[in-house]
């Protein structure tokens, strides 16, 4: 295993500087945020572009070589849009960019692109699955042609009312994951984030037992249930007002049990800290402090 971080919380810092700090802090890998340069932050933790997807093959190789020279692996390139968005223009734009990220990964010698399956929040999950079967085969074929695998994060993407009621990503529950793997298992795996199981009340250890062999990448993020918020809003609010992302070690996850499950499942890939904790935001120093706290919590499990 290698411990690393997702670069998204450093939108105004050049990749080289992020890499230098990460290596000096003892991290071994980066997941590089690759949103479109002109997109801006359409939501929190999105919009960071640490590599221009339109660079040449030679430039892509140079970036990869530079990171390797610093002692850093690239766990994957990250772009998390909504490829099933109901607005066709938006959908086509994000799919076009996702395909460019896939090409960039291939040029860099990076075998994995992390993303979302997507979802139309106004439709139920089964209707969204029908759309996914129409949209995704061409993207998957494109990735296969470039020697790249795709990892869908198991995040429902329902944090705000614009994502209500169905969320913007259907790849969050066991019964949809069985469909995904049956349809595309040779080309698509999971970017596993245990925090998303906490508020859904999905058994985390059972989930790892069932899907551990299909996990290509792991996000380390914790989550705390605000029980006062849950009391006020109830479970039908789908987490809004009571799911609180935290740095690993500050939420409700028992990381010893997560790593026990991952090791038993044979997972030996990257563990990438995803920073979404509002208590460690506002300045680069606070962001770094959050990463360092998470590092010290997770390091004993990663050998």
Automatic annotation (TrEMBL):
Q: Where in the numbering of this chain does the Xylose isomerase-like TIM barrel domain appear?
A: 20-287
Q: Which Pfam families match?
A: AP_endonuc_2 (PF01261)
Parts of the chain that traverse the membrane? none
Q: What residue range is the signal peptide? A: none
Which keywords appear in this protein's UniProt record, sorted alphabetically? Answer: Isomerase
Q: Which GO terms describe its molecular function?
A: isomerase activity
Question: Matching InterPro entries, A to Z?
Answer: IolE/XylAMocC-like, Xyl_isomerase-like_sf, Xyl_isomerase-like_TIM-brl
Q: Which superkingdom? A: Bacteria
Q: What is this protein called?
A: Sugar phosphate isomerase/epimerase
Source organism lineage? Bacteria, Pseudomonadati, Pseudomonadota, Alphaproteobacteria, Hyphomicrobiales
């Amino acid at each position: 295993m290698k411990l690393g971080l997702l670069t998204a919380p450093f939108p105004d810092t050049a990749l080289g500087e992020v890499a230098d700090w990460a290596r000096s802090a003892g991290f071994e890998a980066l997941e590089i945020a690759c949103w479109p340069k002109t997109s801006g932050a359409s939501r929190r933790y999105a919009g960071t572009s640490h590599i221009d997807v339109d660079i040449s093959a030679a430039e892509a190789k140079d970036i990869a070589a530079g990171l390797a020279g610093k002692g850093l692996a690239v766990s994957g390139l990250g772009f998390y849009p909504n490829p099933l968005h109901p607005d066709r223009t938006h959908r086509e734009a994000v799919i076009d960019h996702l395909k460019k990220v896939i090409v960039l990964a291939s040029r860099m010698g990076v075998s994995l692109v992390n993303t979302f399956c997507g979802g139309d929040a106004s439709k139920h999950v089964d209707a969204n699955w029908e759309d996914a079967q129409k949209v995704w085969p061409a993207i998957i074929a494109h990735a296969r042609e470039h020697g790249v695998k795709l990892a869908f994060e198991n995040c429902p993407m329902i944090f705000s009312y614009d994502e209500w009621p169905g969320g913007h990503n259907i790849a969050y529950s066991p019964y949809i994951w069985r469909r995904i793997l049956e349809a595309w298992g040779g080309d698509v795996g999971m970017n596993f984030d245990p925090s998303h199981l906490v508020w859904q009340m999905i058994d985390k250890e059972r989930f790892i037992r069932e899907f551990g062999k299909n996990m290509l990448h792991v996000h380390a993020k914790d989550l705390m249930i605000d029980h006062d918020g849950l009391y006020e809003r109830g479970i039908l609010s789908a987490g809004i007002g009571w799911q609180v992302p935290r740095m690993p070690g500050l939420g409700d996850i028992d990381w010893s049990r997560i790593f026990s499950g991952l090791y038993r499942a044979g997972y030996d890939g990257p563990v990438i800290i995803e920073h979404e904790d509002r208590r460690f935001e506002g300045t680069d120093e606070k962001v770094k402090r959050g990463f360092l706290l998470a590092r010290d919590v997770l390091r004993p499990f990663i050998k």
